[in-house]
Queue: 4 jobs
Job 1
Amino acid sequence: MNNNVKTCKYSIITFLPLNILVQFSKMANFYFLLLCLLELYPPVKSPGGFTSMLMPLLFVIGVSMVKDIFEDRKRYLSD
């Protein structure tokens, strides 16, 4: 019988899919993803284009992912 307590959220295999799910469950990230997808529809297209919407979204999600990696690593080391 093993009595270990595991507080970390992710493993190496599950980090990317679970973290993307967590990131897009936040309403602001989902909203900007929806705006990026609308940029692909020609009648709604804005002069800035798809990349002007996508780059800030990827930056915010990337920073959040790096933060989650460090937090989960701290949890793993404290276990």
Job 2
Amino acid sequence: MARNHTVQFQIGLSLGLFLALLWNPLSDPNQTQPSQVNAGEMLLTVDGEVQPPLKLSRSDLEKLPRQSVKTKGPDGKESEFEGVALIEILRLAGVRTGDQLRGNYLAIYVLVKAADRYQVVFSLPELDPVFTDRLTLLADRRDQKPMGGSEDPLRIVIPDEKKHARWVRQVISLTIRRV
């Protein structure tokens, strides 16, 4: 009888592990991979505490105020990165910024997600020019060329950060949340 329960337990455990591998809540089977995104298609989603959620294409990003910065990338090479300040995208999404950023709104953060499931967090005040002189750029170009290879299609660039751990490559979404 005990052997029967052991076999049933092992079968149940195997089935559970199989289902866990099959169903991964972190992956979206309908998500377009960055290498398959064409110029007119959606590159970035902004969701969470924004209504309605935003879906931005390459042409949408090109219409926003652009900035460029020369800095050393994670590969150690100095490059010119061009794109949109992350705060501009948050403003477009209707997130409170500037003088409106006070009280409960100081507890808002941005979760940046990449196609390879890498994620980082930024507090809203560390992105807002009223609070900091630091530039956090969502770059779509490097050395006058569209992002390519492992960086494609978008990359977070923070010129004055000593460690490049938050220089997220393959950015696909921004989720706005409150602590």
Job 3
Amino acid sequence: MTGTSGDMPPLHIHHGEDETFYVLEGQLEVHVAGREPTVVAPGRACIAPRGIPHAYKVTSAGPTRWLVAMTGTSFARLVRDASVPAETATLPVDPEFDPQEIDAISARHGIELLGPPGTLP
């Protein structure tokens, strides 16, 4: 995944899988309910356990790249179902999404959205 300073998903829970963030470049701050925020720098990882509200925020000034590993397949299916086919062989600008549509897609895959981007546990 890639992101720029301030990028943050909605606060959410994965009900069926753990999520691991491994930073390649830049820095993330991972917020997991019940824990202090974890700063994840290149070469470091952080786990957000299933069933626990969490979100991340890109905190580096430059671009940030990271890998996401999941213990199941529901997140991969969510990404597939929410994706828009690329029109060119370049990285696209993030499209605008209907929050209600994303909420419905997420719910079908066992992911519960708890608040808009910027909401912390």
Job 4
Amino acid sequence: MNSATVELAEINQSPEIENNHELKYADDAFPQAEDTDIKRSAKNLDTALCRVSEASTREIENLVDEFHHLDKKLQADLSRIQRDIAEYAELSKGVMQLATTISDGMKRLNVAGITR
């Protein structure tokens, strides 16, 4: 072997060069690990956001359904109250007519001279 080949072989076998190669391989592996961790974290975050979003959406849908149910109940109560008011007005009108009839009858009795 010539002296240049021997020196090159010695350099390649020196501990400094081996450590340098290890560092180079370690540096190459580190970004891949970070990239995988970032992707995993992003996927976990996406999954968590989807769950929260689904839960919120379900809650909103339940509230909307409850509001529709309450609206129907209010409409039914409004119709019932309007019927009750109309019946009360009719009953009140009948009572007033009855009171007028009784009053007129009492007046006729007084005019005829029948009193207590």
